[in-house]
Design goal:
Largest sheet: 6 strands, antiparallel
InterPro entries: AAA+_ATPase (IPR003593), AAA_lid_NorR (IPR058031), GAF (IPR003018), GAF-like_dom_sf (IPR029016), P-loop_NTPase (IPR027417), Sigma_54_int (IPR002078), Sigma_54_int_dom_ATP-bd_1 (IPR025662), Sigma_54_int_dom_ATP-bd_2 (IPR025943)
Number of strands: 15
Helix content: 40-55%
GO molecular function: ATP binding; DNA binding
CATH topology of the largest domain: Rossmann fold
Structural class: alpha/beta
CATH architecture of the largest domain: 3-Layer(aba) Sandwich
Radius of gyration: 36 Å
Distance between the termini: 74 Å
Strand content: 5-15%
Keywords: ATP-binding, DNA-binding, Nucleotide-binding, Transcription, Transcription regulation
Protein name: Sigma 54-interacting transcriptional regulator
Bound molecules: adenosine-5'-triphosphate
Organism: Pyxidicoccus fallax
CATH superfamily of the largest domain: P-loop containing nucleotide triphosphate hydrolases
Number of domains: 4
């Protein structure tokens, strides 16, 4: 290799640098910058120019060397005017240019831009990967000498690697765009299904709700933890999603963890993740909800169910934004805004030593209480229209509406299951109704029990109450199953649908929760879906 044309070649190290460059995940700009640095070490030139192919033209995108200037960096070449360049691209082979090439029709590529002597050293290296030709790299030197073949071969290898890296960067960009599109698509779907709207909050006719929405919007702008309280089904999760959407974290993940739905033994790993081998079944590292929510918001639903042992770890994660995954001694940092929701009285849980007071104060910096539906009955017409619309998007049953008599029937009910129960009642009524009007008779709401409100004569007539008569005619006496069913429903109404834990239906009925659940299933209560059944 001519010493005059090659730079400092330290074979192995330079080759390693080149391989590292080709496999790096840098942006295209960074790749070019580092690539040109590499070239200055291995070959002598006064100007290295990278041209990308765009619609039959070579457009300069980067230049390096003593002759590189602003004009060179904005230079474009029309390929039609440079047959030798075109040939190099077609054959996909690097080549040095000689005095002879210039006499074969190629003009001076830098005519009007640089004043290089005729017959100066020049080589072009096509940048090709797979089927694609990305452009060329040209090297020029003011000396009248021809680049020797070994130097051309070396730079050609560099060109191939650079093109491969360009291809990878292009694929990454395409992939990221697809990912963004997928994300947008998922958000659109969520919006279409209704999850992406705050529902009836700001437009509520209830001053209490409007005030709540106003305060929620204000706190959304901060990173302050929010404790959302309210009976089951009042819209705590929906409000939490709205707070996330109104916050500057909206473009980051919103992650939820229902602390009551996960067995206590698995909660720590669900929250903070685990490393391979941390426990039987931990076959690989797994990120917890904290890591998943990094940059975004984590909703801890039913936070009152969090085992006391875990509460200390949560407190530290809240205060220091750090934690250790299960089985790991490495500290992980996550920037997460915490929202917590509960339908149990946490003060009472503190008194019973089931909830740490310090954690409570940390979580309840900004409490928001969602009123039960019976305290915002003025919203019933708007809520029905909204929920029926949302339901129509899922089921295709469009145009359903509650008649004034239907609304009156709904108003007469106490709604222990709140908005969720209302949504379910509307869906059941829609299934049972042929037309589009939901009248009083469309709603099969429990009557005479804990759910019914005594509102004078228009209140639900006890027509569905089982009549226990002295007559021994078949069917006159309710079956044991019917009585059990009614009793369980009544207790579930009292516990607001809660099966587990102290004060839950299972405890009141003196049954194991799993026994109650299977009995409910047998009696068809779960299928009614009227009550929230804690998952196991
Ligand atoms: N503001 C709202 N406007 C309209 N519908 C709502 C609103 N909030 C909640 N809903 C509906 O009420 C139902 C229950 O909402 P959500 O799951 O947010 O309640 P929750 O209080 O978190 O319930 P739980 O205590 O059982 O976790 C959902 O079907 C939801 O679509």
């Amino acid at each position: 290799m001519s010493d005059g044309m090659s730079g400092r070649i330290e074979g192995a190290q330079d080759a390693r640098d080149l391989v590292e460059l080709a496999t790096s995940e840098d942006s295209v700009g960074e790749l070019l910058r580092r690539g040109l640095d590499w070239l200055t070490r291995v070959v002598r030139f006064d100007l290295a120019t990278l041209f990308l192919l765009k619609e039959g033209r070579l457009v300069s995108v980067a230049a390096r060397g003593p002759l590189a200037n602003a004009k060179v960096r904005q230079h474009t070449l029309n390929l039609a005017e440079f047959p030798s360049l075109r040939q190099a691209l077609e054959t996909r082979r690097a080549r040095a240019f000689t005095e002879e090439d210039h006499s074969h029709g190629d003009g001076d590529p830098f005519d009007g831009v640089l004043d290089l002597p005729p017959g100066h050293s020049c080589m072009v290296v096509p940048l090709c990967a797979g089927e694609r030709v990305y452009g060329v790299l040209s090297l020029d030197r003011a000396e009248c000498e021809t680049y020797p073949q070994p130097v051309v071969d070396l730079v050609e290898v560099y060109g191939q690697m650079l093109a491969t890296a360009l291809q990878a960067a292009e694929q990454r960009a395409t992939f990221e765009q697809m990912h963004r599109q997928d994300h947008e698509h998922a958000k659109l779907l969520e919006a279409q299904l209704g999850g992406d709207s705050e529902g009836i909050l700001e437009t509520s006719l209830s001053p209490m709700m409007r005030d709540l929405a106003r305060r929620a919007k204000q706190v959304a702008e901060t990173d302050t933890p929010v404790l959302i309280t309210g009976e089951t089904g009042t819209g705590k999760e929906r409000l939490a999603r709205a707070i996330h959407r109104w916050s500057s974290r909206a473009d980051h993940p919103f992650v939820t963890l229902n602390c009551a739905a996960i067995p206590a033994g698995l909660l720590e790993s669900e929250l903070f993740g685990h490393v391979k081998g941390a426990f039987t079944g931990a076959t690989k590292d797994r990120a917890g909800r904290f890591q998943m929510a990094n940059g975004g918001t984590l909703l801890l639903d039913e936070v009152g169910e969090l085992p006391v042992e875990l509460q200390a770890k949560l407190l530290r994660a809240l205060q220091e934004k750090t934690f250790e995954p299960v089985g790991s001694d490495k500290t992980v940092r996550a920037d997460v805004r915490i929202l917590a929701a509960t339908h149990v009285d946490l003060q009472q849980a503190i008194a019973q030593k089931r909830f740490r007071e310090d954690l409570y104060y940390r979580l309840s910096v900004f409490p928001l209480r969602l009123p039960p539906l019976r305290e915002r009955l003025e919203d019933l017409p708007q809520l029905c229209a909204f929920l029926l619309e949302e339901q129509a998007r899922r089921t295709g049953r469009r145009g359903m509406k509650a008649t004034p008599a239907g609304l009156e029937r709904l108003e007469a009910y106490e709604w222990p299951g709140n908005l969720r129960e209302l949504a379910n009642a509307l869906e059941r009524a829609t299934i049972l109704t042929r037309g589009t009007e939901l009248g009083a008779e469309s709603f099969d709401l429990p009557t005479g029990g804990a759910g019914a409100v005594s509102r004078g004569p228009q209140a639900s007539a006890p027509a569905e109450a089982p009549a226990v008569e002295a007559s021994l005619k078949p069917g006159a006496v309710p079956t044991l199953a019917a009585v059990q069913r009614e009793h369980i429903m009544k207790v579930l109404t009292l516990t607001r649908g809660r099966v587990y834990g102290p004060g839950g239906a299972a405890a009141l009925l003196g049954l194991k929760p799993s026994t109650l659940q299977s009995r409910m299933k047998k009696l068809g209560i779960a299928r009614l879906d009227q009550f929230v059944v804690d998952e196991v």
